[in-house]
Amino acid sequence: MSVSGDHVVEPSAWAIERFGQHAGAVAAAVPVQLAKAHSKAHAAHLAAGLKKRACQICGVTVILTGGADSEGAHIQALGSPHNGPDTTDNVLCLCPTCHVMFDGGAIVLTDDLTIMRNGTESGTLRTHPQHTINLACVAKSS
Ligand SMILES: [Zn+2]
């Protein structure tokens, strides 16, 4: 995600209905906060050497011209009110589709790393011995 601080963001109809008179402020602030959080997840993802791994949810390895690629996604969101840690064990390697679904709440993890897709059990999170998952973050992620 790329968001410029100078970019004017109009609130969506959903945001206007949900936040009323505050919709403009929410629409302006959320993309910047999301961009900062995604940037930190990306940095942690790169620093840990996780970039070329398969998606931990669906198992797909996205191949770009530069080789395998995945996205870093925070398990427990950064910033208030979630206050997740900016650490590698709070980051998942996901394909773009699973990343959007995870951030949007369509995919959630249970405490034992079971994947729930829209409320239906859908396997277990793929893990790697060199990439620890912080279960406290998982517990606070949904
Ligand atoms: Zn995936």
Characterize the structure shown.
By secondary structure, the protein is an alpha+beta fold. The protein is built from 4 helices and 7 strands. The protein has a domain at 49-139. The chain has helices spanning 13-19, 23-47, 96-103, 135-139, and strands spanning 62-64, 67-69, 71-74, 91-94, 107-109, 114-117, 120-124. The strands form 3 sheets. A 3-stranded antiparallel β-sheet has the order 5-6-7. Strands 1-2 form a two-stranded antiparallel sheet. A two-stranded antiparallel ribbon has the order 3-4. A hairpin with a 4-residue loop joins strand 5 and strand 6 (114-117). Helix 1 crosses helix 2 (23-47). The site of zinc ion has 8 residues, from helix 3.
Quick overview:
The protein is built from four helices and seven strands. The protein has helices at residues 13-19, 23-47, 96-103, 135-139, and strands at residues 62-64, 67-69, 71-74, 91-94, 107-109, 114-117, 120-124.
Short descriptors:
single chain, 142 residues, alpha+beta, 3-stranded antiparallel beta sheet, 7 strands, globular, disordered N terminus, binds zinc ion
SSE arrangement:
Blueprint: H1 13-19, H2 23-47, E1 62-64, E2 67-69, E3 71-74, E4 91-94, H3 96-103, E5 107-109, E6 114-117, E7 120-124, H4 135-139
Antiparallel strand pairs: 1-2, 3-4, 5-6, 6-7
